[in-house]
Design brief:
- The complex is a heterodimer of chains A (about 120) and B (about 120).
- Chain A is about 0% helix and about 55% strand.
- Chain A is built from no helices and 11 strands.
- The relative contact order of chain A is 0.34.
- Chain B is built from no helices and 11 strands.
- The chains are: A mainly beta (about 120), B mainly beta (about 120).
- The interface of A and B includes residues 45, 98 and 106 of A.
């Protein structure tokens, strides 16, 4: 049973456009929702993360929108650039506290930003 | 910020040999480290969770005698692929918890990954 569903699997966006990636989760115990960016041949890097007590978090061109009642969260990349072309993974973890690091990952979205 | 160093970044070995991959947290103490396997164009598959000073917890379907994990200190975990075969060829990634700046933050920092090719 996949606990975090991510869509779309791939996304092509024109430079300057908005990239939107969606994730839905099932486990209401999840309380931490990070997004990771991965370039080919590299490990994932934390991009931005949110907790359920807020509905939106913005860092530069990256925004997470969180809908607790719908159990959904999404990543918006404004003014998408070719350098944003990468695979993006949403994830979720539960339990809070310093010891709760185990992440459940979505299947990933390959983003291609074309000039 | 928190940095996790993974070494080697790529390794080629002959079938039947063993390969060790190291994962180090450089500027923080990692109470928990995770090992993942990633196939091309796929998500990360959690292999095992290791806590310093205790035995690793392996995910279902992962052979613990095949993938030996040691977490001897708060800054080092190792994954040894024993008697490697071509089907073990993959991208192995480690992550370490404990590098978050906020108390209770579930921050995981990932290594750059290790590409294993078994001939």
């Amino acid at each position: 049973q996949q606990q975090v569903k991510q869509s779309p699997q791939s996304l092509i966006v024109q430079k300057g456009g908005i990239s939107i990636i969606n994730c839905a989760y099932e486990n209401t115990a999840f309380d931490y929702f990070p997004w990771y960016q991965q370039f080919p041949g590299k490990g994932p890097a934390l991009l931005i993360a949110i907790r359920p007590d807020v509905s939106e978090k913005k860092e530069g061109r990256f925004t997470i929108s969180f809908n607790k009642s719908a159990k959904q969260f999404s990543l918006h990349i404004m003014d998408s650039q070719p350098g944003d072309s990468a695979t993006y993974f949403c994830a979720a973890s539960r339990g809070g506290g310093a010891g709760s690091y185990q992440l459940t990952f979505g299947k990933g979205t390959k983003l291609s930003v074309i000039p | 910020g928190a940095v996790v160093s993974q070494h080697p970044s790529w390794v080629i070995c002959k079938s039947g040999t063993s390969v060790k991959i190291e994962c180090r947290s450089l500027d923080f103490q990692a109470t928990t480290m995770f090992w993942y396997r990633q196939f091309p164009k796929q998500s990360l598959m959690l292999m095992a969770t290791s806590n310093e000073g205790s035995k690793a917890t392996y995910e279902q379907g992962v052979e613990k005698d095949k993938f030996l994990i040691n977490h001897a200190s708060l800054t080092l975990s190792t994954l040894t692929v024993t008697s490697a075969h071509p089907e073990d060829s993959s991208f192995y990634i480690c992550s370490a918890g404990g590098g978050g700046s906020a108390a209770g933050a579930n921050v995981l920092t990932f290594g750059a990954g290790s590409r294993l090719t078994v001939l």
